[in-house]
């Protein structure tokens, strides 16, 4: 759903990926931030060219597509845990601003046309979400399965960093759960992730907190996806809206209990 134009090109005898109209944030990430993160276990495609004036970005081509199942999911969680452990970076880059406002929720609900109880739960979830966006950790901001690949050496790498940001780890974990998921899925994801975090750090979330915030992050992603599709007049928006209308009423009923809400 990105706004950039992406294509595979030949670059100095090898394949590469070129993005035109790349976001300034992503260009600065690859130029200034990625070199600091790679030695810490956060693997990204290597930068080949970056022209801020023309918004042209050329990065290493990752030849192997990755599905986040079993071993690759564990590797991806280790990668994200390493990112979340980073205490500071020298470059002080610009970052994507994550927020969940009532106005954004109302815009999404206008498109979704959910029943009244479901809309009330969405609004209440939004009112409980502020802690998701506290600047606790650096985040990729877009960890869904489509943004991972393996380089020629077989290393798992994450690409599409135009939403590099700060916030709660749940923001990076929620997109890795297929569909809307369930409590069992959130518990399993939390357990796998926490196995990679250093528990001596005071900023590591508790298991119960992480499970609750994964559910909140899943709710926020509904609003993000719907509003981005609307803004960009995406041709597949009807398919997304139909699917959400089918699954959200039941899912929201379970989520309001998981998040200890009192709207019903």
TrEMBL record:
The Aminoglycoside phosphotransferase domain extends over: 24-197
> Mind telling me which SUPFAM superfamilies this protein's record contains?
Protein kinase-like (PK-like) (SSF56112)
> Which Pfam families does this chain map to?
APH
Out of the domains of life, which is the source?
Bacteria
Protein name per Swiss-Prot or TrEMBL: Aminoglycoside phosphotransferase domain-containing protein
> Origin organism of this chain?
Photobacterium ganghwense
């Amino acid at each position: 759903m990105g706004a950039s134009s992406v294509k595979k090109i030949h670059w100095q005898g090898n394949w590469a990926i070129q993005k035109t109209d790349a976001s300034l944030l992503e260009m600065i990430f690859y130029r200034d931030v990625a070199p600091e993160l790679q030695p810490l276990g956060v693997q990204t495609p290597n930068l080949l060219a970056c022209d801020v004036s023309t918004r042209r970005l050329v990065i290493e081509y990752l030849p192997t597509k990755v599905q986040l199942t079993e071993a690759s999911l564990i590797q991806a969680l280790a990668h994200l845990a390493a990112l979340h452990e980073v205490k500071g970076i020298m470059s002080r880059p610009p970052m994507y601003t994550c927020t969940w406002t009532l106005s954004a929720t109302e815009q999404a609900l206008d498109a979704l046309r959910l029943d009244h109880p479901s809309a009330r739960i969405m609004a209440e979830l939004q009112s409980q979400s502020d802690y998701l966006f506290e600047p606790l950790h650096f985040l990729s901001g877009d960890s869904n399965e489509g943004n991972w690949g393996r380089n020629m050496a077989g290393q798992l790498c994450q690409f599409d960093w135009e939403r590099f940001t700060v916030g709660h780890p749940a923001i990076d974990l929620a997109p890795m759960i297929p569909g809307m998921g369930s409590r069992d899925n959130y518990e399993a994801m939390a357990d796998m992730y926490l196995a990679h975090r250093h528990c001596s750090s005071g900023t590591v979330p508790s298991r119960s907190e992480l499970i609750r915030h994964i559910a909140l992050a899943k709710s926020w992603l509904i609003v993000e996806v719907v509003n981005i599709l609307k803004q960009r007049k995406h041709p597949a928006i009807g398919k997304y809206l139909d699917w959400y209308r089918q699954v959200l009423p039941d899912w929201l009923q379970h989520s309001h209990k998981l998040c200890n809400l009192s709207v019903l």
